[in-house]
Amino acid sequence: MAMASLFISSSPSFTLPPKTYTKYQTAYFLKPFSLKAASTSVDQQPTISLADKQPSPFKANSWQWKFQDKVLTIYYEEHGKESPEPTKNILMLPSISDVSTVEEWRSVAGNIVQRASKINWRAVIVDWPGLGYSDRPKLDYNVDVMEKFLTDFISAPDGPMKHFGNDLVIFGGGHAPTITLCAAKKGLVKPAAIAAVAPTWAGPLPIVFGRDSTMEMRYGLLRDTLRTPGVGWMMYNMLVRNEKAIASQYKSHVYANPDNVTPDVVDSRIALTKRKGARYAPASFLTGLLDPVKSQEEFLELFADLDGKVPVLVVSSKSSPKRSKAVMQALKGAKGVSKFVEVPGALLPQEEYPTMIAEELYQFLQESFEFNI
């Protein structure tokens, strides 16, 4: 039971079963979108409003990513509206976890792109390889694989974002912005701005138990066990793929308000754990193979490296677990962080409180781009 609680997640909300993909293939977003004012108390976590969680129409799509000797079908969504204003693009990256999915960003995307402004904002949300609705083959998932994917998705000649170049804004949750910063430091991607929502750099086990040689050996053993046929599925089913485990992790550290962990949220996350190959990438995340850096010092250096080059927003959440919150709070006033804000929520504020997150992100976009027009 102790280990079950360590399958720490950072993701999700509306379910899009594979059979329903096709009905969205031609849906763009010509539907009006209404914004709702919200106020919160520091001492009381707000509940989710149904108005917050209504998704706007979007276009579902896929891209064939060629990696090593495999071709992976990568799932992504396009959110936007027709407008005479100049278009600027946002890439939204889900947090990496055992139940990572594009769903965590849908309401935020719909909120931002439907606003009337000097810039016509368009958003693309993509599922990482091995997670969400993307293919999940048996690969040796590590941070290099994820960094390679991000780079290819943005810049590959046949990639969905190839035309946007240096004009691309990137929003990410959890590990995603840290991977983005690593790629930016190497010059592999050149975003116009970055927003890091509840950013992290250590997987569930390393952040709790550290990385000495003994623990690394144990992580490797656990990872290998989870990847084996038969026994691996049994362990995964026991620790992750059940209602009790999913509900427990969401109530304890993914959402801030347990009342927001509805049966629909739990059911949609369980559906993700039943996809073919569901355990491979999460096994790497759990044991630290998807960690972009190995220390808080390296983490801070990633932000410092972009000082004066790229606008960077950090969104910290008030109810994150102690160790995760310490990671976020260390960025307050840190070199390279253009703006730091704190919002209600835990590890997934963009899904639990999408209207609040959308407002913070839109203000950042205005300050970075629109006010200069």
UniProtKB/TrEMBL annotation:
One of its GO terms (cellular component) is chloroplast. PANTHER family: ALPHA/BETA-HYDROLASES SUPERFAMILY PROTEIN, ALPHA_BETA-HYDROLASES SUPERFAMILY PROTEIN. This is AB hydrolase-1 domain-containing protein.
